[in-house]
Write a structure and sequence with these properties.
The protein has 247 residues and is mainly beta. The protein folds into two domains: 2-50 and 161-246, no CATH class; 51-154, no CATH class. Helices cover 13% and strands 36% of the residues. The protein contains four helices and 13 strands. A six-stranded antiparallel beta sheet has the order 2-3-7-10-11-12, with no helix packed on it. A four-stranded mixed beta sheet has the order 8-9-1-13, with no helix packed on it. Strands 4-6-5 form a three-stranded antiparallel beta sheet. It is elongated and about 85 Å long. The N and C termini lie close together (8 Å). Keywords: Signal. Residues 1-23 form the signal peptide.
Length: 247
């Protein structure tokens, strides 16, 4: 018979050190950490900095009758035409990168930067200004389009988290085969201020932790305290005392 371990809330440490004595050497770039007692492996993915502020970019573009691009389909149905040039897109993208001090992880098959930036978009407002409200010398111009984009980005000088992907395999416990269950797919640790974050399904919010060092939606940041499973595991206490079993 196979059993599954349910850890609620999930906080796992791979060190025998006490909580207040974390060593920065435990969590480092490009490392894989193993927890022998549960055959749990944490594979380093990259750094992550929570998004804690909103920035905006605004632009006004003339709308001739022959142009239409880069609009939501619902808006495009109501506006005859619009065109945003590649140079305009580049300016928006790199303005967001500069204002948000954003960086990206290198990964084979990475998405274009413009698609990654789009995943940080919180809100987009598009306003059409009829040419009756201003003076123009272009007879083809039907109006102007004002686009305002709001993006979620990190604050400056934040301490990043180390992101690990959790890999688990069945292990033996009291002559039974046990497998950890109901655990996050990714786990983040900030050993400087003893805080942690968890992701169960990051892709649902458009967050690709392989590529992105910050996402639009950040999970709750929790302080690692002595009454958590993390502290119990680091002190080598019996797992059955803090874990329930489900057949």
């Amino acid at each position: 018979m196979q059993y599954y371990i349910i850890v609620i809330p999930f906080l796992v440490s791979l060190s025998a050190l006490r909580l207040h004595a974390y060593s920065s050497k435990i969590f480092a770039k490009d490392t894989t950490i193993a927890h022998p007692e549960t055959d749990l492996f944490l594979d380093y993915v990259g750094l992550y900095t929570p998004s804690e502020k909103i920035i905006h970019t605004s632009a006004i573009f003339p709308m001739p009758t022959y142009s239409c691009h880069f609009l939501p389909s619902s808006a495009a149905e109501n506006i005859p035409s619009y065109f945003l040039s590649p140079e305009d897109i580049r300016k928006v993208v790199y303005n967001v990168i500069k204002l948000g001090n954003l960086t990206f992880n290198s990964y084979p098959g990475s998405l274009p930067v413009v698609q990654i930036i789009t995943k940080l978009l919180v809100r987009q407002q598009i306003d059409f200004i009829s040419k009756s409200q201003y003076i123009t010398n272009d007879p083809e111009e039907i109006g102007r389009l004002a686009i305002t984009n709001l993006f979620a980005v990190p604050q400056q000088e934040q301490i990043p988290f180390y992101i690990y992907k959790l890999l688990k395999i069945p292990f033996f416990h009291e002559n039974e085969t046990i497998e950890l269950a109901q655990m996050p797919r990714h786990w983040a640790i900030n050993s400087i201020n003893n805080t942690t974050m968890e992701w169960h399904h990051p892709e649902e919010s458009g967050c690709d932790l392989r590529l992105m060092t910050s996402c639009r939606d950040t999970p709750p940041i929790r302080t690692i305290s002595k009454d958590t499973c993390l502290n119990q595991i680091t002190e080598r206490l019996p797992l059955s005392r803090y874990i329930s079993f489900d057949s």
